[in-house]
Design brief:
The complex is a heterodimer. Chain A is α+β, with helices and mostly antiparallel strands. In chain A, about 45% of the residues lie in helices and about 20% in strands. Chain B is mainly α. Chain B is globular, with a radius of gyration of 13 Å. Classes of the chains: A alpha+beta, B mainly alpha.
């Protein structure tokens, strides 16, 4: 069976809804042996679940399902409910978390029916839930319209089904990276072809590996590197099923007085990086080792430019960005850089070969 | 392969890259002035001048018998200038290729004393 999520144009929310629906299907599967696959189909996300037999009974009798909505003690590996509802009062967070579960359980059949026949579409007929800003930065006030003259804007509201799916996907898939004095950098990997089970395995293996980042772009670039590195490892070990991600969505939220506000945001294309990881596994290992060193070194105060230059190069491998990266690296050379973290000749050849002309 | 990748493979570019790496990593030399000259070269003439100045600055250290530098010769300089003279963007590409080769690590090759040999 195939299930469809119609994209709304709110990129982060759409990705979260797709992961949310895949989670719902995976947890309600009678069989439990197959895994839904999330596929990006231009205007839709398709959740392909050919051998799955999802049922509501299975869902509501499954202990793991309820544990998804417990306050997380699993760190980054578990659902990030508290950070997702960061802009809400602490007392409201639990209410919202429970409401997400109730909506998904009570309207389960309607969700699957609509997703199968029409494609789940965000409806403005019955908007009832406020889109939280940490789920998609468009949810923050002051971004959607002009506020000149009257400095106020209403909250953005969406229907409760898509809200609940988005919250479930956001809590599970969004990576909220806390930075002292900078709030949170939020990173979402956009699926192109992603088996749900493989995604979780990669996520578990890459959780907790983080540095101090000078910007949201650097956080996204390092997460892209971790993702590519893990996919490379899978390919090198002979695993046939390798998830494909097209891009990484990122944004930052920071606190202004009592309120959280969005900061930098963007989309980083990573398909070329993943192509490189899959097609040249040996060379990619050497390149990724050096790049990880650059991010580690760039997490030290005073060395932020080092990480930023590489982030720009990963996001857009132009000659300008490459020159900036090598110049900053050259200045590190006298500073006791160990040979093992420098580029090998072969690794640098591969890096120069991906620099775009233009 | 990109144009930069092709230039990177040129032996003359590699010879200059090695020499720059040695000049930067050797704590007695740390010739960042030559690196800045190279970075600021925007025309073929400026590039040639930057490379010649680099060779002059480090000639003594390179010719010292105790040092085993990979020293670029006149033929290497001519080859690099031939690559740089192809079109307006070539200087940037040659510059980037030399700088990138200077960042590489070749096990077994003496590369200065800045890190582990």
């Amino acid at each position: 069976m195939r299930y469809w999520i119609t994209k709304s144009g709110f990129a982060v929310l759409d990705v979260a809804r797709a992961y949310g629906l895949a989670t719902l299907l995976a947890y309600s599967d009678d069989d439990g042996r197959s895994s839904p696959v999330i596929i990006d189909c231009d205007a839709y996300y398709c959740i392909d679940f050919p051998y799955g037999k999802p049922s509501r009974n299975r869902l509501v009798n499954k202990a793991e399902w309820f544990s998804l909505f417990e306050p997380s003690d699993a760190g980054e590996e578990g659902p990030q409910w508290n950070v997702l509802f960061l802009s809400n009062r602490p007392t409201d967070r639990e209410t919202k978390r429970i409401h997400v579960r109730e909506v998904l359980e009570e309207r389960y059949d309607e969700i699957l029916h609509n997703a199968t026949h029409y494609g789940l579409m965000i409806s403005d007929a019955h908007p009832s839930e406020t889109l939280t800003g940490t789920l998609d930065p468009v949810g923050f006030k002051g971004l959607r319209g002009r506020t000149t003259g009257e400095y106020r804007e209403d909250q953005m509201q969406i229907d409760e089904i898509n809200w609940a799916l988005g919250c479930l996907g956001g809590a599970l898939v969004g990576r909220f990276i806390y930075q002292r004095n900078a709030g949170y950098f939020v990173v979402y990997p956009c699926p192109e072809w992603v088996p749900y089970g493989d995604f979780w395995q990669i996520r578990r293996e890459t959780s907790g590996r983080r540095y101090s980042y000078p910007s949201a772009l650097a956080a996204a670039a390092h997460q892209a590197l971790l993702l590519a590195s893990k996919i490379r490892d899978r390919a090198a070990s002979g695993l046939k099923s390798n998830p494909r991600f097209g891009s990484i969505l990122y944004f930052a939220v920071y606190k202004t007085g009592n309120q959280w506000k969005p900061n930098q945001a963007g989309r980083m294309e990573i398909s070329r990086l993943l192509d490189f990881a899959l097609s040249k596994t040996h060379e990619a290992e050497a390149v990724f080792r050096t790049w990880d060193y650059v991010f580690r070194r760039g997490s030290v105060r005073g060395k932020e430019d080092f990480a930023l230059a590489l982030s720009e190069f990963i996001a857009a491998p132009t000659l300008e960005h490459f020159e900036k990266h090598v110049r900053l690296f050259a200045r590190e050379l006298a500073d006791k850089v160990k040979g093992e973290v420098m580029y090998s000749e072969v690794a640098m050849r591969e890096v120069t070969s991906i620099v775009e002309a233009g | 392969m990109s144009r930069l990748g092709e230039i990177y493979e040129n032996p003359a570019v590699k010879a200059f890259g090695r020499a720059y790496r040695r000049a930067i990593r050797d704590p007695r030399i740390q010739d960042y002035a030559s690196l800045i000259d190279l970075e600021n070269a925007e025309t073929p003439e400026q590039l040639a001048e930057a490379l010649r100045r680099f060779l002059r600055r480090n000639h003594k250290a390179a010719m010292d018998e105790k040092e085993d530098w990979y020293w670029p010769g006149e033929a290497h300089l001519e080859e690099v200038m031939r690559l740089a003279g192809a079109d307006a963007r070539s200087v940037r590409l040659v510059r980037a290729a030399i700088e990138s080769y200077a960042l590489t690590w070749e096990p077994g090759v003496r590369q200065g004393e800045g890190g582990d040999e």
